[in-house]
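Task: encode each sequence below as structure tokens.

Item 1
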Amino acid sequence: MGRNRKGSLVSFRPDVRVVDCTMRDGGLVNNFAFTDEFVKDLYLANIKAGVDYMEFGYKASKEIFDPEKFGKWKFCNEKDIRSIVGDNKTDMKISVMADVGRTDFKTDIVNRKDSVIDMVRVATYINTIPAAIEMLEDAKKKGYETTVNIMAVSKVGERDLDEGLEMLAQTSVDVIYLVDSFGYFCPEQIERLCDTYLNVGAKYNKQIGIHAHNNQQLAFANTIEALSRGVSYLDATVSGMGRGAGNCHMELLLSFLRNPKYNKIAVMNFVEKHMLKLKKEGVVWGYDIAYLLTGILNSHPSSAIQFIKDKREDYAIFYQELIDHAL
């Protein structure tokens, strides 16, 4: 069943929610070693910009991940978030992400009434959906808004995806995310996938979100394509900061959205103060031919990340290596 486009270039939709993932996806670039000044300024910039949710990082297990090797936003302790936001007496909501199998959710995610966090986002692969459902129902029981992100969906067959979406849509989850983990999809594919997600969402009264990666310089294009189909929750990061090629740029998204509550100037001021400094300090993310190659081959970006770390420039040889590895 096809769908009509929702809204037009000159309209705005009250159902749209912008989610800032700079500290969570961007934290994968620098092991979450953000200064308190960076985090506080980002929090204030997002409030001024009208951003709806700010994701502070992960609720990762300290049994699996050594706190000595990561910044505090890998773990998002309650006291650390409160040191930035206090009781968060603002319109912007706070979110964290929890990976299936990598979080002690029963103990580390406390009851909502004792937390400043509003929303728990669960990340899962298609084959761990039953474990994701347990986490989602636990978070909902504790009083949180919830989303679920099915990762690496470009590697999932149509039948498995349909079955996984049906299973998730029958839970108490609020939002189901379409995630382009490898930056593989083009807008035409996003259009078809969005229709699949939105049809399930309409059937079970769920909202749909989009989380795009920029391997083919299509994160923004894919995000606004999803928006035009009727997707409501839009993930973005300041300067596109995120693992590998990064994500949809917040500056682009806020400039595109027609709702007058969104203000790109506050984000641009933050870029001037903090993001340019990070780049000068040698923190590396963003489009590169190496990421283009893993994107078009639907491959995990880890090999491209290593290629760039090794300061290699032999793109044609790297392309052949990727093809040989895929055979």
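Item 2
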Amino acid sequence: MAEKSRIEKLNEYAARVKAGEVLTPEEIADRDRLRQEFLAEFRKNFRAQLDNTVVQYPDGTKKSLKKD
């Protein structure tokens, strides 16, 4: 599922719950699966961003945030 449609579907579920509607067990399972996929993709992208970040200290030294 594309990222945009995944977020739209999650937002749809959230709006329905906020409006007081009860989700079916299948919808709850789908919502949980979409959440897990979203979080996995977010973590992967955030790790990649940190791996490409370098901190420069006042003494001029540079250190990568890449996880060893």
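Check on item 2: The beta strands are 54-56, 62-64. The two ends are 32 Å apart (CA to CA).
End of task.
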